[in-house]
Design brief:
- The protein has about 950 residues and is mainly beta.
- Helix 1 (about 835-850) runs antiparallel to helix 2 (about 860-880) and helix 2 runs antiparallel to helix 3 (about 885-900).
- It is elongated and about 110 Å long.
- The strands form twelve sheets. Strands 7, 8, 9, 10, 12, 13, 14, 15, 16, 19 and 20 form an eleven-stranded antiparallel sheet that branches. An eight-stranded antiparallel sheet has the order 2-3-4-5-6-11-18-17, with no helix packed on it.
- The termini are far apart.
- Helices cover about 5% and strands about 45% of the residues.
- Strand 21 and strand 22 form a beta hairpin.
């Protein structure tokens, strides 16, 4: 068979938030805007202590900004608590005003106690700033990748020796080379060597050699005094980074199974539940509402986090399954014990009293819908007096929501449009029955509700729905009479095999009758874990089996005699079966596995009919060519399975499961479980699960020696099939406001997230205003996981908004021509008039030197005289304004404006390319100082 290359682009939730540009070398003069930041700043709306004005989080670190100054809270695994480290400045003003700027898209939502309330819509900002932290010194804090960066901005003439700071609360502060290393408990903080530069009135920068000095725990800055120009602003620019373990505390973080979905834009949604109070990264809540809470994370195609949120009430809550719709909304289900505190709009629970002998153990079924930004827009509670757990959820026709799971309630509200649900009484009583519920798209009514049960325990673990609204449920039953009453068509397997069997059931759109229902298993233990419809509407079911006689047809793996144990048992294999939609036959059925045990927890199908399986193996020969499961370019860094651990795996099968495209292990040295899998038509597959490995492959920062908790959630993106995948950031490019006659530079990063080389064939700038310019390669080959930078410059020529477009042509099959919009605005200076006069004169001097401004006259002598006359008028205007004669000074400026406007008479005194900019600078000053 042909070998298909696969590559992993890994974003490991809790282990690491993968951010483009993170870990790249730092330039000598670095702009925060040139690095995609994983840090944003939220105003405190009640999600932090009252003294905190703004809060930011990254990794296991919280940054609190109050009027008393910045405080860093870092999780210490040795003490299982946050360690406070105060960034203390000697002589700082207290209180010091702190404000935000650089408004960003997105908001945080904090759900907890109460119904639908909570703290919602908290905005995100790119910076916080102390305007006067010290006399003449401001401080700006912002993100640089996953690190915190801050600028200390000294006004002209302020002595750099006035800046002394320390990390109060730390156990030790040391100089290591040109960095500062701060240690406290199990936390290590590094402040990188500072970049120091001065800025002139045109915004031009000049770097100044600098380093640190440490005395009695106080840090100061050493600079070359001879290189300092006291007329210019000085900026000190350090970066703080942490190198402690990433992940949550020593609690379990557990993903749902299956608890992974990918929307139409390629975003992955990972659902789970946690006992960790510091699940990271979190954007929807800083503490648990109860002992166990739901956690949902949305991961963008490039691996960065779009949002991550706790959901829950004061008691235990868990997320077991999710789905998405075509608009990018996420729908969750599981169970909640927070009967009075879980956020909900509708309560469709039974009001009957508990009749279970010994008392009930109530837990309710929920369906919660979040919009693409992570805001809860709909939530409904369902169930009876005892316990319900949702295990499967899917969206059907008209947006109706279908759920399945297990209930021990005998009073589950049942019904259907015909008034006769298939089964309105639980045959299992309090031992546990399966159920299917069709909930209206508005969440306010049960379209139908029915039990699926026999006299033993039954649980529905997965559900799929066809366009007509017929539901297909897979699960496990211990009831020999589960299919009693099935009359047409005859089940493929009418009798119970024993020790627990898988089942597959088709239910009509009204929930009143079965389309088919069948056991699926042999003499050993069998279960079904998930179900999906393929592109032809066939019903694809996966699970695991210990039965050697599980039906097989067109199998990609058959049992060897050595694998068959007495009484037709096997150690344990995964299995996949493709049933016809009416259940009258199955098209293919195959074992999946090696010599030891396998579990398949999740299945997905793409538009071409390919099938994707996610699970766990303890077989040392899986995948293996001898079992028809070759390793195809094993995910780099994955450890081989040993008898002491087990690994997650991902398998891609061709249509109907008749061939193996690839099968690969994914994991580190201590074991993983693959619990969710999802594909999209762009050729990428996502696998989620849980890991205890400190060396999980592909993580940008991994666990750096040990995972933080007993288990952590991971999500891996696998690209296969030979297609490059272009990703461009930032998109769009917004230069903001740039004061004339200045300019601003930004980098446009073009990345290849696919497994094959990306060919950039052309890069063009379309700009009718000539305010933007571009430099860099117009054609390039970008290898997998590689990137190139294109330099963009914005130099406005008027006080107006500007826009342009960069078009990028490539061989990406999905985005062969990509358009990136550029924005920027020309802004006038708000400096005092005398400073603006000085700026105008400096501009004339530099423009005459470079030849872009010349005197306008019939001969060289007249041209020089006119230029000198113009300069004299500008200087005279400054003298008059300085003397308090503003009206007279403005008269001079108006005359200067008339002699630079290109209109005659009076004659212009200057010409050349810079004349227009000169006109705008003078005009800005007149508008600011001379307008009534």
């Amino acid at each position: 068979m042909s070998r298909t290359r696969i590559a992993a682009a890994v974003a490991v939730i809790t282990l690491v938030a993968a951010v483009p540009g993170y870990g790249s070398p730092r330039s000598e003069i670095d702009e925060s805007d040139s690095v995609v930041s994983a840090i944003w700043f939220e105003p405190n709306h009640g999600q932090a202590p009252a003294s905190t004005r703004f809060i930011a989080r990254t990794g296991q670190v919280q940054y609190h900004f109050s009027e008393a100054g910045p405080v860093i809270l870092a999780w210490d695994p040795s003490t299982e608590e946050f360690r406070p480290i105060t960034l203390e400045f000697a002589g700082a003003n207290s209180p010091a005003a702190v404000n935000s700027s650089d408004k960003r898209d997105g908001a945080s939502n904090y759900y907890g106690l109460g119904s639908r309330g909570g703290i919602l819509g908290v905005p995100h900002y790119g910076r916080v700033r102390y305007e006067s932290l010290l006399p003449g010194i401001a401080a700006s804090f912002y993100g640089a990748g996953a690190d915190l960066e801050y600028d200390l901005e000294l006004e002209p003439g302020v002595d750099v020796r006035a800046v002394r700071l320390r990390f109060a609360g730390a156990d030790a502060t040391q100089l290591v080379g040109d960095h500062v290393v701060v240690r406290t408990g199990g936390v290590e903080l590094t402040q990188k060597a500072p970049v120091v530069y001065q800025v002139d009135s045109h915004g031009m920068r000049s770097q100044v050699a600098a380093g640190y000095s440490l005395r009695d725990g106080w840090l100061s800055f050493e600079v070359d005094a001879q290189a300092i120009d006291e007329t210019k602003r000085l900026v000190i620019d350090p970066v703080i980074e942490f190198s402690q373990y990433l992940g949550s505390s020593d609690k379990h973080d557990t993903p749902a199974h299956p608890g992974l979905e990918v929307d139409g834009d390629g975003n992955a949604f990972v659902l789970g539940y946690t006992k960790s109070t510091n699940y990271i990264p979190i954007t929807g809540g800083s503490t648990l509402a109860g002992a166990l809470d739901i956690v949902l994370t949305k991961v963008r195609p490039d691996g960065s986090i779009a949002y991550s949120t706790y959901i829950g009430g004061p008691a235990d809550d868990a997320g077991h399954a999710l789905t998405t719709d075509s608009l990018g909304n996420a729908y969750l289900t599981g169970f909640t014990k927070s009967s009075t505190g879980f956020p909900h709009d509708y309560d469709l629970r039974s009001t009957a009293a508990c009749t279970r002998p010994g008392g009930c153990n109530p837990a309710d079924l929920y369906m919660t819908k979040l919009d693409p930004s992570g805001v809860i827009v709909l939530s409904t509670l369902m169930g009876g007096a005892d316990r319900e757990e949702g295990q499967g959820i899917v969206i059907g026709p008209g947006g109706d929501i279908f759920l399945t799971g297990i209930t021990t309630s005998v009073d589950l509200p049942t019904g259907s449009p015909s008034g006769s649900p298939y089964q309105d009484v639980s045959l299992a009583g309090f031992t546990g029955a399966g159920f299917v519920i069709r909930l209206s798209a508005g969440g306010d009514q049960l379209v139908y509700s029915t039990y699926l049960s026999g006299s033993g325990v039954t649980v529905g673990t997965g559900i799929a729905v066809d366009p007509a609204g017929n539901a297909f449920v897979a699960g496990q039953t211990f009831a020999a009479d589960f299919v009693a009453g099935v009359t047409a068509p005859s089940p493929l397997q009418a009798s119970y095999g024993g020790e627990g069997d898988a089942f597959v059931t088709g239910l009509n759109a009204t929930g009143s009758a079965l389309i088919f229902s069948t056991f699926w298993g042999g003499a050993g233990h069998d279960s079904a874990r998930d179900v999906v419809l393929d592109s032809s509407g066939n019903v694809v079911v996966v699970g695991e089996t210990k039965s050697a006689l599980l039906p097989q047809r067109d199998a990609v793996k058959t049992l060897t005699p050595a694998e068959i144990l007495p009484n037709d048992r096997i150690p344990q294999d995964g299995w996949v079966t493709v049933f016809l939609p009416d259940g009258t036959d199955y098209l293919t059925s195959s074992f999946i596995g090696g010599a030891k045990s396998e579990w398949i927890y999740a299945v997905d199908a793409d538009a071409s009919g390919n099938l994707y399986l996610g699970g766990q193996t303890s077989s040392t020969n899986f995948p293996d060519p001898s079992t028809n499961f070759p390793v195809v370019d094993q995910i780099p860094g994955s450890s081989a399975t040993t008898q002491e651990n087990a690994e997650a795996f991902a398998v891609k099968l061709g249509p109907l499961g008749k061939s193996v495209v690839y099968a690969t292990l994914i994991g580190g040295s201590l074991g993983e479980i693959g619990l969710g899998i999802a594909s999209n038509d762009a050729g990428s597959t996502w696998l989620s699960g849980t890991t205890a490995s400190p060396d999980f492959p592909g993580a940008v920062t991994a666990c750096q020696g040990a995972c933080q908790g007993l288990s952590d959630i991971f999500v891996v993106k696998i690209a296969d099939g030979g297609a490059p995948d272009i990703f461009v950031a930032p998109d769009p490019v917004d230069f903001g406001s740039v004061a004339l006659p200045g300019s601003s530079d930004l980098l446009l990063t073009i990345s290849n997230l696919g497994p094959l080389d990306l060919e950039i064939t052309d890069i063009q700038l379309n700009d009718l205003t000539n305010a933007f310019s571009i430099s860099g390669a117009t054609a390039a080959t970008i290898p997998p996981d590689g990137s190139i930078d294109i330099s963009l410059t914005f130099a406005p020529t008027s006080f107006t908004p500007f826009s342009g477009i960069v078009t990028i042509a490539s061989d990406d099959p999905d985005e062969s021509l990509l358009s990136i919009v550029l924005f920027g605005t020309g802004a006038g200076s708000e400096d005092p008039p005398l400073d603006q006069i000085a700026t105008i004169l400096d501009f004339i001097d530099s423009s005459v030197v470079d030849g872009s401004l010349q005197g306008s006259g019939p001969n060289s002598n007249s041209a020089a005289n006119r230029l000198a006359a113009l300069i004299n008028q500008i200087e005279a205007a400054g003298d008059l304004i300085s003397a308090g004669m503003t009206a007279e000074g403005c008269d001079q400026l108006v005359d200067v404006l008339n002699r630079t406007d290109g209109v005659h008479p009076p004659p212009d005194f200057v010409g050349g390319d810079a004349a227009t900019v000169l006109f705008l600078l003078v005009d800005n000053l007149i508008v600011q100082e001379c307008s009534p």
